[in-house]
Amino acid sequence: MPGQSRVRHDLTAAAVELFLRKGYDETTVDEIAEAAGVARRTFFRHFRTKEDVVFPDHDDCLKRVEQSLADADPTQPPLAAVAVATHLVLAMYTDDPDASVQRYELTRHVTALRDRELIATSQYQRVFTSYLNRRSGGQPHTRLPDEVAAAAVVAAHNHVLRQWLRDGGKDDVHAELDRALAAVDASLGPWLAGRPSSEPTTDDQVVVVIMRRGTPMWRVVQEVETAAAG
Amino acid sequence: MPGQSRVRHDLTAAAVELFLRKGYDETTVDEIAEAAGVARRTFFRHFRTKEDVVFPDHDDCLKRVEQSLADADPTQPPLAAVAVATHLVLAMYTDDPDASVQRYELTRHVTALRDRELIATSQYQRVFTSYLNRRSGGQPHTRLPDEVAAAAVVAAHNHVLRQWLRDGGKDDVHAELDRALAAVDASLGPWLAGRPSSEPTTDDQVVVVIMRRGTPMWRVVQEVETAAAG
């Protein structure tokens, strides 16, 4: 479990077990510390609040995500760098599937915890948006696609993660994430790359292309390019 | 100001003014009630907490959004129905631009309020996702595009709203939202409609595509795919 000390892990495991058995509101920090065999002040050396204890270390993960984006090859497509960072977030859950599944159960029943998870999620989205902004040179007109793409990536991540947690943490969710991100990229990649603008151009000549239904797309593109150049 | 009583509006205005002048933590409910010329218990008839007072009535708006989606014409594209609902959310802010701009200032400085706004936002996203799920017949393979599209719509809404608030609440942000949602639709509409693959079809009917010279190639591809799917 990279980035997590043993004590931290034991406290989390004890807390999740108590929350599920006794209820979240009914469990005290003292009981958690006792169950993990440490002193109350040790608890507070690792976590600020009772809520913090049941979360993966989002602060730590956020730093890894930021570092990964800072180190990303500037010649690779921006969404590819974001995909790598997204796998780091997912790994936080897949490193310990049992704990993640238990935590998910808890999050479903305790609103305060669900809200916390949401806020953590929004921080990744903010970091992704700001990376995409940087990559697109901070142009005002790219801010919308950057922001939409970051939201789409986070939604795709959350979708596959939630599905995996519901299924009990089996299967290769990283491969599933790759497929989901490829689908996002297929839809949003062109817009992000600044190729979309659905603004009509000022030139209003018309091109007519007639082809058989079923013509491969590469052939359509070629025909249109030829016609447009003519 | 539809759905808001006069007293409610006065309480909000007084609270925002006090929060900005004295600070959020330093302002009490008693002071807010006094500034609005009402009793403390009147405050609590309208709001549960001090946080609630500075927010637009998200509960009420969420009901309007759900109703609008329940009433939506089932023959119109799902994203068009979501767009209508999104304008209802935006209208909550544009109904009173000055109050919205002041509230935005506040939200930028008080983390608790920013978090609250985020949680409210996530509720719209959840409602949009569930509408899109319904419209796509709840097939497992449409859940990812549904979820991504809902996130994209909310991100686009938040983007234009934030820009408008930063610019002081001038301009026609509803027209801006239409443009942003059209761009989202252009990118995600085909995926959502289950038409993403550019697999050639077996049918050999002829497709005629007419477009302006200068139309971006991604748009041509989209048109051809739509025509071929039709």
Automatic annotation (TrEMBL), chains A, B:
<protein>
    <submittedName>
        <fullName>TetR family transcriptional regulator</fullName>
    </submittedName>
</protein>
<dbReference type="InterPro" id="IPR041347">
    <property type="entry name" value="MftR_C"/>
</dbReference>
<dbReference type="InterPro" id="IPR001647">
    <property type="entry name" value="HTH_TetR"/>
</dbReference>
<dbReference type="InterPro" id="IPR009057">
    <property type="entry name" value="Homeodomain-like_sf"/>
</dbReference>
<dbReference type="Pfam" id="PF17754">
    <property type="entry name" value="TetR_C_14"/>
</dbReference>
<feature type="DNA-binding region" description="H-T-H motif">
    <location>
        <begin position="28"/>
        <end position="47"/>
    </location>
</feature>
<dbReference type="InterPro" id="IPR023772">
    <property type="entry name" value="DNA-bd_HTH_TetR-type_CS"/>
</dbReference>
<keyword id="KW-0238">DNA-binding</keyword>
<feature type="domain" description="HTH tetR-type">
    <location>
        <begin position="5"/>
        <end position="65"/>
    </location>
</feature>
<dbReference type="Pfam" id="PF00440">
    <property type="entry name" value="TetR_N"/>
</dbReference>
<dbReference type="InterPro" id="IPR050109">
    <property type="entry name" value="HTH-type_TetR-like_transc_reg"/>
</dbReference>
